Amino acid sequence: MKKTVVITGAGRGIGAACAKLFAKNDYNVAINYFKSKHKAKQLSDTINKSGGCSEIFYADVSNPSNVKQMHQEIKNKLGNPQVLINNAGIAQQKLFTDITINDWDNMLNINTKSTFLCCKEFLPHMINKKSGRIINISSIWGVVGGSCEVHYSASKAAIIGLSKALAKEVALSGITVNCIAPGVIATDMTSIHDKQTMDILKQEIACGKIGNVQDVANTALFLASDEASYITGQVINVDGGF
Ligand code: NAP
After folding, report:
1. Going by fewer Cβ within 10 Å, which terminus of the chain is more open, N or C?
2. Ligand 1 centre and the CA of 172: distance in Å?
């Protein structure tokens, strides 16, 4: 039977690349979007026209009732997911002294609380089935800390702590929980940097180039596979040797 994957923030960027790759590999794909309905619909149409199976689902994943509602709709249309990819996220560059309480709350709500909410929502079914995969998209800044991104770094480090602890709690239920920590990947999120900043970042990368969304999607597909069943509580850096 086909498996279902739910990917948060899958209308564009890394999430969209995961959606395409999982669809190609015979998963039913639940594409979550928040503001990018049009892009999510286009992506879903492309997947379905090429023989895949996907549906789009609205939710602000930082909102508990939205997440609950999305789960119900996914269950009805595609069945309960065996794989959850917590990918939705925001970034912001600011000096620490300029970060407002609102900035902090927004960052932690969208990046971290969303991961907590989606795990809570989709985990019980995985526990019942004694099988499942949770893949949380952290960031290299969550591992090493990024200057002028204290709230972003904190939100992504918290995802690592959550993942390592949850991995231990659910391992005997046949569920793995891992993080991917991307480095600098070409998406809308990094397109805000000017050429000079990107050149400086490139010099920090051993591979000498910016990563692409496919690099992250390939890692997510592997972590979801049977071949990765003995890998849990890990952080896989996909950063070209940053
Ligand atoms: P992106 O192109 O800016 O996409 C962000 C995605 O998050 C969008 O699909 C957006 O959905 C979704 N999103 C934001 N707020 C949401 C909310 N409240 N509810 C549901 N979805 C929401 O960014 P990206 O580069 O693909 O990033 C994806 C993930 O990778 C993020 O967690 C990011 O922190 C992480 N990451 C990225 C990089 C990088 O270099 N690009 C590096 C490290 C980690 P809508 O457009 O529908 O609102």
Report:
1. N
2. 31
